[in-house]
Amino acid sequence: MLTVYSDDHRLQDGKAELVDGKLQPCFEMPRRADMVLDRVKTVGLGEVVEPKNFGKEPILRVHAENFVTFLETAWDEWSALGRSHDALPLNWSVRGMQNREPEVIDGKLSYFSFDAGTPVTAGTWRAATASVNVALTGLEAVLGGARSAFSLCRPPGHHAAAEYYGGYCFLNNAAIAAQAWRDRGAGRVAILDVDYHHGNGTQSIFYERADVFFTSIHGDPRQEFPYFLGYAEETGSGPGEGANANFPLRWGSGFDLWSEALDQACKAITAQGADALVISLGVDTFKEDPISQFRLESEDYFRIGERIAKLGLPTLFVMEGGYAVEAIGINAVNVLTAFEQ
Ligand code: Q9C
Ligand code: ZN
Fold first, then answer.
1. Residue 284 carries which DSSP code?
2. How do 16-19 and 22-25 pair as beta strands?
């Protein structure tokens, strides 16, 4: 399987996120991608290539123009105030308040974000756009006839919606690739999100659409980030009714429960008649993940790859989360090698 990778991911290297009431070192760090790339090479998964540049157009098919402009200029506005440390928001609009874009950078950070865990840095825009290019270059390979490709995206994307960032995500790599796949002729795209966290951004981007089916297995929003989306009752709306399927699982869930949900999600993908598949490949379901509460073991990731392969669809794997850095490469690449068997 071809891997697409860009060193530009290093440009996103935040110092700190707010966790448990304390500023702590970012869990989403450059070493994550290094470990995955190392494993790709160790097992000889296949060729590793650099991304092509697709520009802003495919991004604007998914994200709002004012949001994209904000991301592109946020660091300049922040540093113009003499600040050289990471930019983090401090407060948000809630029920009953206005939803208007403020004029000043501190207000804009709040307006366009949903958490204080996602620092904007000097290199954020370049890293996030490189990550999009990695996703789209993987798609090119599949459009060129490959059965699958692995887009080793970093920063991740599935928490980013049309008009907001958060959850370590700025631009939604998987959603941009799914949209590009539709624009290049796919009839119906399925997105299967196996990251530990609900892919709130991806769900919300496609929630009212029938042409992209979104399904996700994740920590129950009653207990887990992002808390405000990911319930089983969310099945899509308007023309998209029936084109969204969530499988929330309680803290402590192991592969017995998780693989049952995977089987149901896969059956739904088949029933939907998808002809293209994007996998949001997070491996923070691992038992040793420092911020997550599922109990998957490294061997289980082989079973995930096998089940996905049984769908028999052209498949683009897009890297999302996974914070047990020593195991992230083993777990992610286990999915990919088993898919290829
Ligand atoms: N107590 C992804 O996996 N905050 N994002 C966690 C920990 C946010 C995860 C706080 C987690 C975001 C792509
Ligand atoms: Zn995650």
1. T
2. antiparallel
CA of 323 to the centre of ligand 2 (A): 8
pLDDT band at 274 (very low <50, low <70, confident <90, very high): very high
Per DSSP, the three-state class of 169 is strand
Closest residue to atom 12 of ligand 1, CA basis: 167
- pTM above the 0.95 mark? yes
Q: Give me the helix-helix angle, 65-79 and 124-143, nearest 10°.
A: 150
Tell me if 155 CB under 6 Å of ligand 1: no
The pLDDT confidence band at residue 194, using thresholds 50, 70 and 90, is very high
Cα angle: 289, vertex 170, 70; to 5 degrees: 155
In order of their start, the domains of the chain are: 2-58+121-340 (3.40.800.20)
Q: Whose CA is nearest to atom 2 of ligand 1?
A: 321
User: Over the stretch 139-163, which tens digit does the pLDDT of each residue have?
Assistant: 999 999 999 999 999 999 999 999 9
Identify whether 159 is a catalytic site residue: yes
Q: What is the ipTM of this complex?
A: 0.96
